[in-house]
Specification:
Layout (H helix, E strand, L loop, with lengths): L1 H11 L7 H21 L5 H8 L3 H12 L31 H16 L2 H12 L4 H8 L3 H19 L5
Helix pairs in contact: 2-3, 2-4, 3-4, 5-8, 6-8, 7-8
């Protein structure tokens, strides 16, 4: 009789189906964590838990993840501190990523960037990554500020062409 009651709670008490062995590891981990925390006076590390359980670090991490499946929250539930206005978890999911286009452009531009001359790549790096002025770049590479301006303009035009952009 006791076995049937335990099996019922084991099989239906978890919010997400977790294999029996993982459930047992998660419950053992809870017990060992409580005992070890009381003994050492702080939260134990994964390594300490693994040693106390006689298992690997990976098994402890799996048990931690399995334990998180015991109780879940609906995505329609209000987030803490949301004060009711647009505060459900669902409303934070699925938003358009405004920077997604940059990933595609970066892939296209990266190939063209490699085909630029070493000097053009250096000039672009100094201007946009190190935020140097055209005058500072000119002094560093030994050309005039006007030449740096032309180099930047032509390199950017090549990159825009690669990205399929037609900016004026």
């Amino acid at each position: 009789m006791l076995g049937e009651i335990k099996r019922y709670f084991r099989d239906s008490g978890w919010a997400i189906h977790v294999p029996r062995a993982a459930q047992e590891r998660a419950l053992k981990l809870q017990r060992v964590t409580r005992e070890l925390s009381g003994t050492i006076g702080r939260a134990p590390s994964v390594r300490e838990l693994a040693e106390a359980m006689g298992s690997s670090d990976e098994d402890v991490l799996d048990a931690i993840h399995a334990g998180n499946a015991y109780d879940t929250i609906s995505i329609d539930a209000q987030r803490p501190g949301s004060d009711g206005e647009a505060g459900s978890y669902a409303e934070t999911l699925g938003a358009d990523d405004e920077r997604l286009d940059l990933v595609e452009y970066s892939a296209v531009i990266a190939e063209r960037l490699r085909s630029l001359s070493a000097r053009d790549r250096l000039v672009l790096h100094l201007r946009f990554a190190e935020d140097m002025t055209q005058s500072e770049i000119a002094e560093r590479i030994g050309v005039s500020q006007m030449q740096v301006s032309r180099l930047i303009r032509s390199a950017i035009a090549e990159l825009r062409e690669a990205a399929g952009q037609t900016w004026s």
